[in-house]
Structures are given as structure tokens and as C-alpha cells.
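Researcher: Sequence of Peroxidase follows. Predict its structure.
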Amino acid sequence: GQSDCLIVGSCELPSQKNDRHFIGDVSHDLFKVPGATYGMDLTSMNVQRGRDLGLKPYHQFLKHFSNAEFEDLRNTSQDSVDFLEDIYDSPADIDAYVGIITENPIPGLDIGPTAAEIIAMQFHGTKFGDSFYFTHTNGRYPFTSDQIRSIEAFSLAQIICLTTNMVKVRQYPLQLPGATKNPLISCSSVPTMNMNP
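Model: Prediction complete. C-alpha cells:
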């Protein structure tokens, strides 16, 4: 189906370099009606959503996660600093979303340190706030240690093979293709999950 094409594209093509600039499809033409000059702007929508929800300004996130002040600027390029100074009257006015997307990415990641902290905090809350999370062994119906090992060994390649019509998939779908480091594997050779106790 069409979702298979999206998955293949996501697994086979590198993503755009991460920076504060968004492609026109997202910043001008989102949900554009045929014949219209413009669509919507996802970045503006995210900023407005943050304001509507009463999200604290960026400098407060900086202070909370790294005890840094905005003036420190160690995680922001000079180009982004100049951009922020043109847009905002004061560092205290910078919207959280805008500040976060202007941070330099952590080496090896596509996000800066503040976004990384927020995502880690959200994942921690999801995992430890859910009494049924699969690794918890003190719940009412916990998985056995063998079942937990089986779940942990289950790969994204296996999930893609089981939920799509794809015949082949990269062994490591989130890594870029490489001749030998990330070969295409046949979905018929991908084992299914064993949940027997």
C-alpha cells in the first residue's frame, strides 16, 4: 500500500539536515487546498499552540534543564542568535519551540540538548508511569523473563515485515543503507515473536 512506500522512503533515503529552516511543504503549503496560493505553516502553528497552552518561554527550559541562561548561547549558532534578536525584543520572550529548534544538534543526533532532555523525561514518564509496561515484573499479569527477552529481541525490521506487504527490508531500518553493514533481508527469513511462557 501507500504506507509501504512511505516506509521504504524513510528507510532508504537520508533525512534533510536538521536546522531551524523548514521546507516549503511544511512552512507554506501544509493542508493547501487545490487552487489556493498558500496553505498552513506548521512552525507557526506549533508556536501558537505553545502560547495557547501557556508553555513557558525558552529561557526557563534552559534554566530548568541545564541551569544555563540564554546569554550563554553555547548551544546556538550565531546565525540563529541573530535571527532570534531580529524577531524578539528580549531573550525572555523567545517561545520554547523556537528556542529549541534553533539549538545546535547534539553530535550524532538531530536534536539539541533541550529537546533531548524533554524527550528523555517524557519517555521516563511513559515507561515508569505505566504499570503495564512490558519490563515491569511486579504488576498483576507480568511477562516472564523469557517473554521480556523475546520482546526486547524483536526488531523494527520484524515489525515492518509483519505489518506491511514489504518483501524485503533493511536489517536496521533506522540506519542508512550500506553495502554490507545494513543489507536488505527477506521478510520470509525474519522470525516471529515467541510469547510462549
